[in-house]
Automatic annotation (TrEMBL):
One of its GO terms (biological process) is enzyme-directed rRNA pseudouridine synthesis. It comes from the Bacteria. This is RNA pseudouridylate synthase. It catalyses: a uridine in RNA = a pseudouridine in RNA. The keyword RNA-binding applies. GO terms for molecular function: catalytic activity, acting on RNA; pseudouridine synthase activity; RNA binding.
């Protein structure tokens, strides 16, 4: 991830900029420091006590993430609707489990994503932001790293990410009721 320092943030310590301006947690910053990540300013490796100057270019190289033993790469087709350096949006079909579990260890969407990551040389694990049940189809939001996942998780809890559900019903309903279900 990369950021450019503007006049307002010149003079800040790199640590303060990363934690307070871009929202990297202390825990993730520690992981970058001790798990083979890198902090670069203007393509030079620095420590968190570096004092920023206007127009500095900051880059954080996150360390490779440990993947759960349950995640096994499987050549399962995934329908990518949108992708960038931070996000993957998939069109999930019904009747596929999103994440592996004891009951469903294989043939999951996450296993297909891990296969895709391996093909693309993406060293992160699967960070599902908007999980869908096995029988549910729809768009599934996946963060490509811990940092993006933490931001999207926070946004969900602050209700700045909204989900909308639509159900298709066949047959006759016994009773006419309208249900208002809040987005969360």
């Amino acid at each position: 991830m990369k950021w450019n320092v503007n006049e307002e943030h010149a003079g800040l310590l790199l640590r303060d900029y990363l934690m307070n301006v871009v929202g990297i947690s202390k825990r993730l910053l520690t992981a970058v420091k001790f798990e083979e990540g890198k902090l670069l300013v203007n393509d030079q490796e620095v420590n968190v006590r570096y004092t920023l100057k206007e127009n500095d270019q900051i880059e954080v190289v996150f360390p490779a993430e440990k993947r759960s033993e349950l995640l096994v790469a499987e050549d399962i087709p995934i329908d990518i609707v949108y992708e960038d350096v931070a996000l993957l949006v998939l069109n999930k079909k019904a009747n596929i489990v999103t994440l592996p579990s004891r009951l469903h260890p294989c043939h999951t969407l996450a296993n297909g994503v891990i296969y895709y990551y391996d093909q693309q040389q993406i060293t992160y694990t699967v960070h599902v932001v908007t999980r869908l049940d096995r029988d549910t189809s729809g768009l599934l939001l996946i963060a490509k790293n811990r940092y993006i996942h933490s931001i999207l998780f926070r946004d969900q809890h602050q209700h700045t990410i909204n989900r909308k559900y639509q159900a298709i019903v066949t047959g006759l309903l016994q009773e006419k009721k309208r249900y208002n279900i809040l987005s969360y």
